[in-house]
Design a protein that fits this description.
The protein has one domain. 56% of the residues lie in helices and 3% in strands. A three-stranded antiparallel β-sheet has the order 1-2-3. Strand 2 and strand 3 form a beta hairpin. Helix 1 packs across helix 2 and helix 2 packs across helix 12. The radius of gyration is 17 Å and the shape is globular.
């Protein structure tokens, strides 16, 4: 873990740590897991900005995930056509497309994908709440920019983790070991049931595997260890 990433972790804790603690009060989920997930999900977007931009400016560009069919073959929507079939889908596409165009202006990694007029963002907020929930859970969060506010993005991130916690370990779990915290982070990425079914056989080699062959679980483990002693 390099010191630049640790500096970003410190920045997250200084700006948002108190709110995270308050949101997790009474739950065994550690603040450091929320920070580890935030780093894993969106740090690549705001890494070059956070020392000069305001927290509000950082939150406003925390979008991503432009993958659609055939690589996105299970989660809704598979593509623009499927999204726009929804009763509010055309409005959602405009929001998701504008988010991608704004992101492409500050992150050259999206310069090519934005040239395709049918591409749009599927992940919203620092903790990347997936657009599939626009249809089933909270359309106003997406349409009205709740994802670009700290209250909105933290609220959904915490709620999702609490749901994963209950599925993985039961509703009465009061403390978590380091490994259990990592598994909870993996569940945030790939789902609780899939994670639970692979504890023994795959350990931390679960979740999204990046271009370097490192799994999401391995990144969460590394992120958590990097925060030890930082505050």
């Amino acid at each position: 873990m390099n010191t630049k990433t640790q500096d970003a972790m410190i920045w997250l804790n200084q700006n948002f740590g108190g709110d995270i603690d308050a949101a997790l009060a009474g739950a065994p989920i550690p603040k450091n897991l929320m920070i580890a997930i935030g780093i894993q999900e969106t740090y690549y977007i705001w890494a070059k900005m956070y020392k000069t931009a305001t927290p509000e400016e950082i939150l406003a560009i925390c979008v991503g995930d432009t993958i659609d069919f055939p690589r996105r073959s299970t989660a809704w929507p598979k593509n623009r056509v499927e999204l726009e079939k929804h009763s509010q889908g055309k409005a959602m596409f405009k929001v998701a497309r504008a988010a991608l165009e704004r992101l492409a202006k500050v992150n050259s990694g999206f310069a090519t994908v934005v040239k395709n007029p049918d591409k749009f963002c599927h992940g919203f907020g620092m903790f990347q709440y997936d657009i599939q929930f626009f249809r089933s859970a909270d359309p106003e969060f997406f349409l009205n920019g709740g994802w670009a506010t700290w209250k909105g993005t933290l609220g959904h991130g915490v709620d999702e983790l609490k749901g994963m916690l209950a599925t993985l370990y039961g509703a009465h779990k009061t403390s978590l070991s380091h490994d259990e915290v990592v598994f909870l982070g993996v569940a945030y990425n790939q789902g609780a049931l899939k994670t639970k079914n692979n504890f023994a056989s795959k350990h931390f080699k679960m979740g999204y595997k990046d271009a370097q062959g490192i799994y999401y679980g391995e990144h969460i483990d590394s992120n958590l260890k990097a925060m030890e002693g930082l505050w």
